[in-house]
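Issue: copy button drops trailing tokens. Both records pasted manually instead:
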Amino acid sequence: MNYIEPIKKELEENLHKFSQLFILIGKGNRETPRYFNLKEIDPINKTLKIGSTQQSNLFFIINYGNKINSFIDSNDFWQQFKEFRTSFLLENYPTIDTQ
């Protein structure tokens, strides 16, 4: 199951926002979007919380509603998101360390 494609637009919008914020006012690695990860899956409200593993107040919520109609395997989602996030940063914000 490709989890990223149905929510790609929302992921890109949010990653752009956090990447631009990091470039403007980042004070260190704690704010970098390269540390964003899947934080929570809420199957009742059909939302995903994606946020920093370094700074708890840096996160965004994706409503996957009718876009993903199956159980979300967190391990599969994480692997797909990690690849997407790295490609996104390399393509759009190559100055942000993506290691």
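Record 2 (pasted manually too):
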Amino acid sequence: MRTAHDPPPKRQLKVDLDEVAFAMESRGFEITSYLDLETGEVIPVTQDARTYAEEILAQVGTDAGSAAVARAIMEHDMPDWERDLVVEAIAVELGFGERFITIPASDSSAGYEDMESFTETVRAEGLQARLLDAIQGARPFRRFKDAIAQCPEERERWFAFSNERQRQRVIAWLADEGIEPA
């Protein structure tokens, strides 16, 4: 039996952890991704689609029916593929906080810590020294990538290591949001 001090039960949601991890890694000024809390789908919204969505909602109002929104979208001069993006942006705008939540950007310090942790596991002294040197200097991500590329087995092991760490960050973020991946 739950008490008042127990955390609320986690909501189960079918989520593609790799897709969420990709959204976290690729988030930038031009694209923000959202998690649909009903479907588990990742919805990327470009800045252009968001701008169109805001214009359309300002024109028709947030209480307008779907037919009025559809007409307003058709009145804007844009390619059909962009209309689809605007429809998604409007859905996110209208359902933000209830149906959609923002997927946060990855923290570059976490990626750096991954490189440090992985380097500690490398047994080939020459490669370990090169990786340590790479992450200590300027442009550590680029230099690490160049150094690890010289050893295909370790490169593959790095990808598996990095992917697992990213997945664990996604699972932790979902847990913070009260979501358990189904």
